[in-house]
Amino acid sequence: MCTNLRRLDLRGTGSPGNSESFEVDIAAPNAAISAEWADVIDQVKNAIVAIRVTAVRSFEDCAAGVWDGTGFVVSLDNPKEALILTNRHIITTGPIRARATFYEHDDLPIWPVYRDPVHDFGLFQFDSTELRFTPPTAICVAPLELRVGTEVLVIGNDNAEKIQILPATIARTDRNCPEYHDNYEDENTFYAGAGSNTSGGSSGSPVIARSGNCIALNAGGAHEAASAFFLPLDRAVYVLDWLKEHPNEIPLPPRGTLLARWLFQPFDMLRRLGFTAQQEEEVLSLSPDASLNDRQKGLLVVENVIRGTEAEQRLKPGDVLLEVAGKPCLNFVILEEQLDTAVDSEVNIKLSRAGEVKNIQLRVVDFHKLISHDFVECGGGVFHVLSYHTCKTYNIPISERGIYVAQSGFSFGLQIPVSAVITSVAGKKVTNLRDFEAALAGVPNKERYGAHLVACADLGLLPQAAQYLEAEVLGGRRCPGAARAACPATTSDEGYDQRSAAPEASVADASPISDARSRASAEQDSDTVPAALREEDSFGYPENSDAAISMVQPMLCTIVTQVSHEYATDFLQSKEENKSTVIRRFGVGLVIDTGGLVLTDRYTVPQPLVEVELTFGQTVTVNATCLFMHPHHNMVLLHYDPSAVKDLPVRAIELGDAQPKTEELSAGQILSFVSIHSDHQLSAKQVTVGSMCLKVWPFPQPPAYRGRNLEICNLNDTLHGLGGLLIEPAPSYRIRAWFAQFPAGSLRYLAGVPVQVFAAVLASLGLHSSWAAKRVRPLDPKLEVAALECEFEEVSLAKARREDGVPLENARALAACSSGGRRQILRVGRITSGGGCDSILLEGDLVLSINGKPVTKPHEVEREMRKCHSPDSGDGASVSSMRWRVQRSRQPMDLDLTPTLLRSDGTEHIVVFNGVVLRPTPRAVAERGGPTLAFTRPGQVEMGRRENWLQYIYPGSPADTFSFADSRAMRNLGWLVQLNNEPTPSIERLLEIIHSGALSGCEWLRCHVMDAEGRLSVRALRPVTGQWDRR
Question: How far apart are CA 190 and CA 177, in angstroms?
């Protein structure tokens, strides 16, 4: 059997400019279609709809997101409760919202009222009286007309384009179910085949015969062939008739199963299984008058059974089915008719096992009870009881169903993968949602607990994993009956009311995201901070025979950073991180003060809005908060509670070793490199200094932090680990450089920062060699640093003299102050748009001197800026101007330039508005340079502007439904500048508009968006009040 098959829904479609994704228009009939089809097309066109489905939560058979499909009206008996037939894999079993667009462009909400537990069909309900332009029309379903040789038209939303008409001829009607290798696969029915060449978006299309009736439902196709697979509609007719006969009743149409998968096999194959010639004659004698084409060609055979069931004990693969409940069973239609009338009762099964006739009694199980609809949300994760189809796919005993992880979330995402099955929590077995809730409720907040799980791809029981529950921060709730986007009905784990639907959804909110520093400080003040080790429990640091490691390890710690994927606003994510629910990074920390200060890099801690843990001596782990994130350099200051490690001999780096007079690193020096690894182990090796350079980092996309104006050290050796210290050999062991991870796009680059360079940066923050001993008050949490909003490049002195005409006397002064074997001059390579240097410096200016002193390195420029910075003045911090002499257009020029005071960088505050994650404009947007556009200034509190930068779109949110951005990858980022008639120049203004009620009652919101190039456009979305607004 061909396995290169696909379903024909179209996932993640629809860009803001692709309005045709929602248009429905019957294209002109194909020339190959005869004119007599025109009347048939005109008869059915008003009944066919394009469906857009939004899964608001991930579930077992789908991830949260948006997809397109097709459906058609099959019942108008009750105009207020008209029914649309489509595929089950379009409706899915999780919580959804959906809309249908009709032939004359009427756009109406629809909601699911029935999902078949096994076959690939389901029903939406809508109010046909709301149609304004399209005449209400229904298509008759006639499965008996499905015969080989029948000419048909497949009319549907092919490839999410305007509805297309594809001709085909039914080639066979006894194909076994296609195998898609998904969690959900149809079973125990025939499929029809034809070469219609349908593609994505045509799932749910009616297969129309010349009579104008629908004889099958388009469901799937082959990737590399024209083959299409049509679902016969015998059971769909049964469900429709039952619903019409039982209006306004809660119970679902009875659907029974023996918990076994059957395949149709021809008589020749049955002979191989021991089926005798006499038994074959008896079967053929049941229809002696049948024509050659209609004669019986085979019987149903047990393919496999579900583990942990009665069927597993009594049925065997290869058993040939002869009778059910005393009636000959010649096909799937008869089998299902008998089972659906005997739900929760026993039936007699007659079968042939290797030629021997056997009669057994089996209980018919209610199929609806085996399909999950309720779910629990906790810590950003989505959990529900494992359903029949996953048990079947992975051969899991249905009697021991655990809790399926549809979305792992922040609390579970690092240890429990998506699609895993949780079998116990905190030592308690969990087989249903009530047990799961009770087990989680019994775990104290922020306590670690054990969980056993089974990976669906590998059924071996994994070791117990430690989890971290944060109920206070991320919250948890149960959502009963939320498998329909709209109907908050009260149900149990075993049953679900799919019929009492309402057009509005009820989805749980997460707790607000507050200011990162306030939240982190509150956590530090709580009783969750680890207590200090008692003297008798003190471990000290591990002994090591390498003196260099023993000297360095008290200064280093391992850092672990983690954040939910949707809140990783400043992360440049790798492919693996982009697929992960929770992003986790490892890095190295350098203790700069035993009072609780650690220095790390911006690859490890890209933003303040993260959870940070520090591990000292492979023994003690403490939480840390982000105190300061340098806006230009790859440096982050973290603060931790020193009492948690007071019994460890933690030692701070001696900043006194980093005096400006310290000789610089030079190529060829042989030193020792002590590095730390993610497993907290340290290693040491002898290395050779390769080069010192001012590296110009490439611009990432989307815009994010990139280092500037920082000299780095490269080694000639291959480096391993997260970073560490470069030190001189014995006996001095003097520290020469700090090695850290630099963000380079979605990758990382391990390089060193000379000690005098990063010491100068720390000194600009008030951290110098005597700071720890002399400080009498805590470090100001609102640190500011004097900075130049421009970027330097290195140019050789020879090139500057030849091409830019640098005067001889300036060249001599620059050469005299050069060191490390390098003679270079600084050139202004890029200027931050709207910054303090804009309109004063120009790209290409060569820096000759500052305040009369020649400078050749960025840290020398920062040294002069420090002299102009007065952080302790009576009226607050202030800076005075500097006298610059630059070479511009081959002429020297004197300029007065005042540095800019910059606060900590990185995202500390976000707003989620209808699924759009908004944040202040990142500094990287302005640092790209170029013309100054509105809203391009980085959002800073002191400016009074915190523009609404579009960062991310939640899958399954209203913004995702209505294609708020070009794509979920958000490659063309920009700003939300206006809502309806209200400008939104800042996050604060947006919140004022929301809280004022100005948007209440609005059916549609007109969102004015400006992209990164300054182009304005309008997006319209239908808001969901209270469910997607978070701060």
Answer: 6
